[in-house]
Structure formats: C-alpha cells, structure tokens
Amino acid sequence: xxxxxxxxxxxxxxxxPIKRLDAIDEIGNEQFPPDVSHEEKxxxxxxxxxxxxxxxxxxxxxxxxxxxxxxAAPAPxxxxxxxxxxxxxxxxxxxxSVIIDLINTVEAxxxxxxxxxxxxxxxxxxxxxxxxxSAATKLQRLRNLGxxxxxxxxxxxxxxxxxxxxxxxxxxxxxxxxLKRQRVLAGPGSDGFSFDLLDNTSSDTTMLSRPxxxxxxxxxxxxxxxxxIQRPPKSFRCISISYTGTNFSSRSKKPLKGNIYNSVExxxxxxxxxxxxxxxxxxxxxxxxxxxxxxxxIFLEQVFDRVNHESYCTSPGIxxxxxxxDLLQLAVGQDTSICMSLVSVKxxxxxxxxxxxxxxxxxxxxxxxxxxxxxxxxxxxxxxxNLEVPSPVGLEIYLVxxxxxxxxxxxxxxxxSASRVAVAGHAATESCGLTxxxxxxxxxxxxTKVLAEIERLVSRIxxxxxxxxxxxxxxxxxxxxxxxxxxxxxxxxCLSESSNNYDVKGLIRPQIHTKIVVKDDQVTVSGEGALGTxxxxxxxxxxxxxxxxxxxxxxxxxILLQQVSLSIAYTALFDRKALLxxxxxxxxxxxxxxxxDEALIVGMKVSRDFLCLYLELDQGDMLGLVARxxxxxxxxxxxxxxxxxxxMADDGKFSTNSGEYKNRRFLGHLSxxxxxxxxxxxxxxxxxxxxxx
Amino acid sequence: xxxxxxxxxxxxxxxxxxxxxLELAGAVMDELASSTGPRAEFxxxxxxxxxxxxxxxxTTLREEIKSACEYRPFEKCDYSxxxxxxxxxxxxxxxxxxxxGLKESIxxxxx
Lengths: 693, 111
What we know:
Chain A: Belongs to the Mediator complex subunit 17 family. The complex is a heterodimer of chains A (693) and B (111). With 693 residues, chain A is α+β, with helices and mostly antiparallel strands. Chain A has helices at residues 38-49, 69-72, 83-107, 124-174, 260-263, 277-312, 347-351, 392-416, 433-460, 489-496, 541-544, 576-601, 672-692, and strands spanning 23-24, 30-31, 178-181, 193-196, 216-221, 227-230, 237-243, 320-324, 327-332, 336-344, 464-469, 476-484, 511-519, 522-530, 606-608, 612-616, 622-629, 638-645, 664-668. Chain B is elongated and about 90 Å long. By secondary structure, chain B is an all-alpha fold. Chains A and B meet through helix 4, strand 3, helix 6 and helix 8 of A and helix 1 and helix 3 of B.
C-alpha cells in the first residue's frame, strides 16, 4: 500500500505489538513473523528514521513472504501523517479477515487439522539473555535470602539471650519460692507466672481473719528480659513492740539500701548500658530480698492475727488495756505496759494509714483522742540504753519465736491426730503463747530488779562472789552467792588426823553457798553451808547435817527459820529490803558459825548466838564478837563490834541494850582473814589467861 | 558428658547452635549470590558444618526430651523452715549487737 512519490515523514503511531500473521496456508499452518526482541524493536524504530538505508532484517529468517509493515515503509515519505496509521489498520483488517475465515471454517466443522505450533528456535543470544535475566533474578533472590537469614539469626540471638536471662533468673528464684503459672495472660509482658508466698501446709487457715491478698506476687518481664516482680501494696509490715509512752521501741528496720525496688515503683532496666551478668545477678538478688521481706511480713501479719485471737480468751497472765485495728496494748507486771503494733516500714504506707494516725514514732496512742487508751504509766527514764526493762527488739524476736514454735507444734498435732477422732475442744490443750509471753516479760522485769538489789549487796561485801546460773527456761532466773573462808587450821588439822578421813573430796575449804531462785515472781532463797567434811574433831551435829540439806523447793516452806537455810516466799508484794536483809543475815550468821567452829577446833570455849560469838575467858569474862548488819551502809554491809562484859551478867549472855557504851568497841568492816587472825589472837589471849589463872 | 553438666546448659548450647546455623545459611546464600560466582570449597565447608550442626541439634533435643522428668510442683514446701531461719538471723543480729556493746564497754575500761 505504498504510495510512491510522496515524501513523508513516517511517524509510527502503531502501538499495538500484536503478533501479526505473516501467512496462513490451506492446511492451517500459521506463520508468524519471528519474535523481535525489545532491543531489535527499538533499533528498528530508530532505523526507520534513517532515510538512507533499509537495514536488512536482522532478526528472524527469510521465511516470511511479506515484509512486516514496520520495515516496509521506511522510504516513502507521506505527506499525510496518518497514512501509516491507515495502512496499518488496513493490514490489520486483512489479517483479521483471514482469522475470521479460519474461525468460520472451524465453526462449520470442517475437518481442520490444527497442528501444534512450536515456538521458533531461539537464537543463541536470545537464549543467553534469557539465561542472564533468570540468573540475575535468582542472584537477587539469593541475596535477599542471605540477608533475611542473617537478620533472623541476629534476632534469634537477641531473643535467645533475653529468654536465657529471664528463665535463668526464674530458675534461680524457683529453687526457693513456689512458682505458679496461669495460662491466661494477665496482660502484656507477663507470661502468667507468679510466686505464691502463702504457706498452706502449716498455717491454720480457719483461724485467719485477715485476708491475705498479698500472697501472690506477679512476675513481669522487663524490656531487656530481666525478671522483675510487682510488689503488692502494703506488703512490707513488721511487728513493733514498744513501751507505752516512750520511744523505746523495736522498730529499727530500714528498707534495703541500693535495692532496685526502692527508688521507683516499677524498676526499669537501664536501656543504654549493655546488660552484663552482674546486672542480672544483682537483679535476681534484689528480687530475692524483696520476696524474703514480703514473706516475712506475711508471717508477721499472721502472728499478729494469732496474738489478737489469743487475747480474746481470758487467761490469768494477759491483761489487755487497749486495742485498735493494728495495735494491741497489754499490761505486764505492775506498772509497765507494752504496745504491740503492726507497722509498715515503707514511707508511702505511712500516709495511707486508715486512721490517719502517723505511724512514725512509737505508737498511735499518743496522738489518739480517746483518753481511755492512755498508757498506764509513763516512765520518762526509759531510754535506749536502759537496762531496767528487757529490750523491745529481744521481746519482738521472742514473740515471733514462740508463735512459730507453736504453729509447728500445732501442725504436728494435727498430723498426728488426723487419724484419731477429731476433738472439738482440742484447742484448750494448746499452749497459749501470749500468756507465756506476758509472764515472761513480767518475770524479766522483776528479776532485773532482784538482780539489781543483789548486786548492790555484793558490791558492798568484798568477800562475797555472785555467780549467775542461766537456766534454760524463760521464766526462771537463779544466782548464787559464794563465800569462801580463808585457809585455816582446820584444813591442816584434818590432814594430820587423816585416819578417819572419808575421801579426799571431803576435804574442801569451807565455803558458804546461798542460792537465790526467782520463778515468775516468786523468790526463793536457800543456803547451803558446806563445811563438807566429817572430821574426828567432833563438829556438832548441826554442823554435819548442814550439807545434807538440799534445796528442795517443795520442802522449803516447811523448814523453819534456821541458821542453815532460810526460805522466804514472796508474792507480788516484793520487799526488796527484806530480801537484802535476809541475805546479809544469812551470810553474817554463817560467818559467825564458821568462826565458832574454828574456835572449837583450836579448843576455845565458845558459844554462839545467831549473830554473836561468845568467847569465854577466864574468870567468867565473856568476849563477844557481834556482827551488825546494815544493808544501806555504803561502806559495807557487815560491821563488827567487840563487846567486853564481866561475868556478872545474869544469863551469861549479853544484853543488847545500848546503855553500855564503854564496853563496846567498833572494829569496822573486816575481811575474813582479818577476822580469823583476830580470832587467833583472842585464842592466844584466852590461853594465856587460862594458863595464867 | 562433662562439658555440659546440666541439661539447661545443653539446651542453651542448642539455641546457640540454631543461631549459628542460620548464620551459615545466610553466608551460603550470600556466597551463591556473589557476582564472581561461588567458591566451591567455601560452600562445601559451610554446608558440611550446617549438616553437622543440624544433626547434633537433633540428637541433643531427642535426648533431652526423653530424659525430661515430670515437674512436680510444690514438693516439700520449706516456707516454715525459711521462717525459722529468718528468726535465727534476727536472733544472731541481736546477739552480735550485744557483743559489740560488750566489746565497746571493755575497750572503754581499758582506756
């Protein structure tokens, strides 16, 4: 359809890259022009602009019988710009008519044998380029895959380390605390793990009146995989015991220093710094410490609850004088009262106290309005170093100890009697811990007073020693006063007459042993004077029977007031002076007895009274050595007087009226050695006088 | 057996191996995608290591699964013993305080 002679610029508007039939023969074989690659198409289009040459068909074979319309029109220039368009359309029309004929033939069900059409064989460079493209695509995909693998390996490493940190910490903590898991996710960031701090095996759940919501502590996972716990509110409480009206209390607990849970409400890991093993370690340790605190505070709450329960039942030893929600006031002894309260250590909880009372300081009573709960006795002399009363820290420890032991005993009984018939009144046989505690406190205060008196006594008599014998019972105390007489003739005399000795053990130095035992608030004084040996010197019968008097407490009230033993039972009306006086009298009496025996050994004629030693001189003269007991004397409790009397006295004994001053001489406070040497001098005097008469 | 004493450490090693396997796969892919063509020995070495690691992971996991015991929770709860220990700690602290006080007073006497 070329028009010759016209110069035209061919502008190809053909945008249809349709495969046009080149030819079709009767059999039905279609012939397509060979595939033109993209480059060739471009080249062809470029060349069409080139006027000078008709480039030979670079692609395809020469099978086609018709040149493609694209290459067919390089030369003629058409004036009408649409001419090519029109020609292309006409060609397309022709092809379409061919195809329509074919379709009509097929529709008419003529036997049309359609053979398969094969793709024409590719030229090698077509093959190569195809291969290159697919190879490049594969390379690209492989590279992506490689990058993906590497990224996922890094992510996996991070995840592995995070999980290792979390589960490593969890395993370490799980060795000490019960771990529970709920599959239902409570929230983001937590896997449902929690620590159960309630001890179900040993607590008597029926007795609990306080609900314990704090017992389940949730575990959360930090951003870096560290394990942290959510601290329940009001979870850090402890029992504080204080003496009412004072500041002397046991509340000295401070929150842990440097603990991660102290600074902020929910601890956050430092995101910038890389986490090391020490960080993980310190987190685990801090978490463990916090769990310990919470566990302890739960137990202390249970103890307080139990204390309240026991205070409801009336027992002889318990006197409740005040009660608040978290506070219990008890009177112990005669004039002291202690106050037990459940306080919280953290500062925030202080402000949340339900009553609005400030828990800082000793107790809530001093701020309370109700006057009925004012303390019985406000002692101002209590201070931190006061030794008159037992320290509150010790009391708190003891209280907790008692209740823990009781709970163990109850648990054993429960397990033991599980097979037996359940006894409804079984609770009556349980030991009431609070009674024991109150009695112990009362006893301690009382025994401190007793000890103070005894120390006062002992500090004034230089030759008496005080020994304390701690018994392993909290409501008993015992001390003993020990008086050793100096070495005397007695000892050597016994040695010389060794034919009748029983055993070497008997040859002990004479000594006096006074025992003082305080049980609850009863004082028992018992004395043993053990001259301890039987000798052929004929010590009087009461001397030898002394050491057979044991301290039999049951018999003591029956023993009369003797020189050997004194037994005094006091009830709550404790008279300190009387105790002191009795002790000193005992000692003085025993000194007199010792002197008496010494004198007998050396052959003097002596007789004795309770506190006097009478020496018979010649001509009926009597020399008396009198012990004077004054507990309040600062220089010494026992002082000695020498009294001289003629034989004209009526009954041979001295009259104790104070009229005869001229015969008395004050000797002062003598040591035992001085007394003994004085006695020996008197012996010389008397023998001389005897000899002289 | 002594190199990994606890099963926990063995499992941790398995995890590390998995990470290493992924790294190897990534390296192999990169090598295949390199413009100069893959080096055969490089690929062979990596693939060998890959296969060995996979085999080891499999054997270790199989052993661990077989030997994993039943977890019995809350066995021998020792909370009361723990409380007893806490009480003992408090007692000891108290006694140490007292002893320190005694020592101070002794030192004061010596001065």
